[in-house]
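New to this. Please check this record:
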Amino acid sequence: MERIKNNELPHGLMASMHQVEAYLSNCGLDHSLLELMRLRVSQINGCAYCLDMHSKELLHAGETIQRMISVSAWREAPYYTPKEQAVLAFAELLTYMKAETDADESHEVLSRHFSKQEIASLTLAIAQINSWNRIVKSTGAIAGNYQVKQ
């Protein structure tokens, strides 16, 4: 059930979210890798709207159904690269984060694949999809109608 329509949101809220998205689109991180991470975080948060969106984006980018379906069990699947595994582990760490969480080990693994600047951008991307999931779940956006922009 849609509780708050986009046109009922405070002025500037969506513009601010889209500014962050614009930064992430141009920060140099791989689009498909970010979408895979967004799909996983949206699974964790149970956001149907975002699952619809990111699965369609991944399909459009050429991702396989097998990898999309298995992403919740990525640790057991042999077809995720060490770089993807590092990102998925980090995404889960930040999404499930408890006050006593220590990110040192995760950063050590990430540093094998990413610069400090890329890790900072990846951190923002994970925080951003968590924010989107919470906004969408709060407002009650209806899943199923997302269209990939050509």
About this structure: The chain has one domain: 30-139. The CA atoms of residues 118 and 129 lie 16 Å apart.
